[in-house]
Structure formats: C-alpha cells, structure tokens
Amino acid sequence: MLWLLDALERDPGRDQLIDMLGRRVRALPLGRVRGVLHGTWLGHPVHPMSIHLPIGSWMSAAVLDLKPGRSRQADVLVALGLAGAAPAALSGLVDWAELRREQQRVGLVHAWANTAAVGLYGASLVMRLSGKGAKGRALGYLGLTAVGVGGLLGGHLAYRQAAGANHAEEVPHVVRDGWHRVGGVDEFPVGEAVRCVVDDVPVLVVRESGGEVHALAERCSHLAGPLSEGTVADGCVRCPWHGSVFRLSDGWNVGGPATAPQPAFDTRVVDGRVEVRLPLHEVPEAPYGSDAFTETSVDGHRPSR
C-alpha cells in the first residue's frame, strides 16, 4: 500500500489537469470566504472538521440498513450526508489548490474517490425514494467503500505528506531559551528580509526605518516556504510560495492559506548587535531531570541573504 501511495505521488500523468483545476479554483471570486474555508479564523484547516457530517451520516445509515424497518431513517441520513458533502468538498478544494505538486497528485485521487461516493449515495437516495430499497442499500454500501478509499488517501495527505499541518510548530521546542546574537545592525538593511540561523532554525529578521527590529520563524507555517524570499510591506511579510501574509510585530497570520501564526521572537540591540530570543511564555519546560532548555545560547552565525 505504501509503495502504491508513493508511486501516486511521483506520477506526473495528471499534472496538466492539476494545473488547470488549480488555476480555476484560485480564480474563484470567493473574497473573504476563501479565508473562512481555509480556516484562518479557526487556527487549523476547516476541511477535516467539515467531513464529519457526511461520513457520520452515511456510516449511521449503513448501520440502520442492517436493521429491518429502519429504511426511512436511513434515507434521511443519506440525504443529510449529501447536503453536508458540498461545503466539505469546497473547503477541501480551496486547500488543495495551495498544496505542493506531490500533495496535489494524491489530493486529486482523494477528490475522485469522494466524488464517486457522492454519486453513489445520490443514486442510492434516488433508488430508496423510488421504492427500490435493496438497490439503494447496495449502492449505499458501495458509496461507503468509496468513502473509505477517500479517507485512506486523506490520511496519507495529512499524516504522511503533512498537508494542513503547522510547519513552524517545532520552533519553540528546538530553539533554546536565552538571547541569541544574529548579527550587527548594519547587516540588516532597512525594510529588507534577512535570513539568519539560530540553533539550526532559520529566522527572518527585518529592521524598520525607525530602528525597530522584528524577527519571525523563517519557514512559513503553511508549507515551509522561505519567507526571506518574500515581500515586506505595511509591517507584514508575504510568503513567495502561496501568498500567506504574516504581521512582523507578532507573527499573526493576517492572510491565508496559512492557518497558524509564525513564531515571533523578542529582539534587542546590544553594542550595535541584534539579539533575539523566544518570548518567555513560549519557552517549553525542560523534561524532568534534563537541562535541555537551561543553557543560554549565543549563536555566532552571520546572516545569509
């Protein structure tokens, strides 16, 4: 199974279709609804949450179909699942359009399986309402099988390919507490994004015209895009890969598709040199019996641009 899924990731046979569909999805005039569908308001993608209604309804219908005299209740559940499938599909579609190519290849087949499930459950409902209960139940079980295939591929997307995961979550657990020197003030041109390294973690540093210095985790929380190659404007930085916008002062994600903010660092200037540290409330407690987070590190890496 793993070999088949890996082969699916590497197969370029559907790339032209992916490009065409991706352009059309990104061109949809959704406005602020796009951010709602991504889940920027929730702090993580909406799609995994929205699929519970159709899957739960169809699973319950399958159980009721095993009991005699429960056909009407099962019919209602099949219809409810079909109603819930549309918003779930739309939220998944806008997320899919902003993924890496390997993720999109798996996601396209995931969508095909779920589309097949919706078609089978639609036909099942028609058969049920036409009095052909046996055929309706058979189509329902075929639909549930397609849902299972779609779920397998969705799990691969989320847990193997890390689609929808926060790609900056590990920063507070890797960077040690204390102040870290990242370079001289003159090494940070005003208004430009400069990439530094602290405890092997890339950090974005921006000096403003008033002398204030901001520092964020440099890898975008959406899909680890290099923020140092993005654009800085209006107190924010825009990711060059998928356009997520983060506020420099605190890392807040003011524009999707990123649903998680960037880890932000405290900054100070000492003797003409810029130092950064994790805010004290973000420094994890050291494991019992460990001094892993008790040392204060001063990193000598020079900024790379």
Concise synopsis of the structure shown:
By secondary structure, this protein is an alpha+beta fold. The chain has helices spanning 2-10, 15-27, 32-38, 47-50, 52-64, 71-96, 101-129, 133-160, 171-174; strands spanning 180-184, 193-198, 201-207, 213-217, 231-233, 236-238, 245-247, 253-255, 264-270, 273-277.
Features:
305 residues, 9 helices, disordered C terminus, elongated, four-stranded antiparallel β-sheet, 44% helix, alpha+beta, 15% strand
By DSSP, the count of extended strands is: 10
* Percent in helix: 40-55%
Order of helices and strands: HHHHHHHHHEEEEEEEEEE
Main sheet record: 6 strands, antiparallel
In which order are the strands of the major sheet placed? 1-10-9-4-3-2
Helix-strand makeup class: alpha+beta
Oligomer: single chain
Distance between the termini: 42 Å
Report the principal-axis shape.
elongated
The portion of residues forming beta strands comes to 15-25%
Low-confidence stretches: 286-305
Question: How would you describe what is shown here?
Answer:
By secondary structure, this protein is of the alpha+beta class. It has nine helices and ten strands. The protein has helices spanning 2-10, 15-27, 32-38, 47-50, 52-64, 71-96, 101-129, 133-160, 171-174; strands spanning 180-184, 193-198, 201-207, 213-217, 231-233, 236-238, 245-247, 253-255, 264-270, 273-277. The strands form two sheets. A six-stranded antiparallel sheet has the order 1-10-9-4-3-2, with no helix packed on it. A hairpin with a 2-residue loop joins strand 2 (193-198) and strand 3 (201-207). The longest helix has 29 residues, at 101-129. The radius of gyration is 24 Å and the shape is elongated.
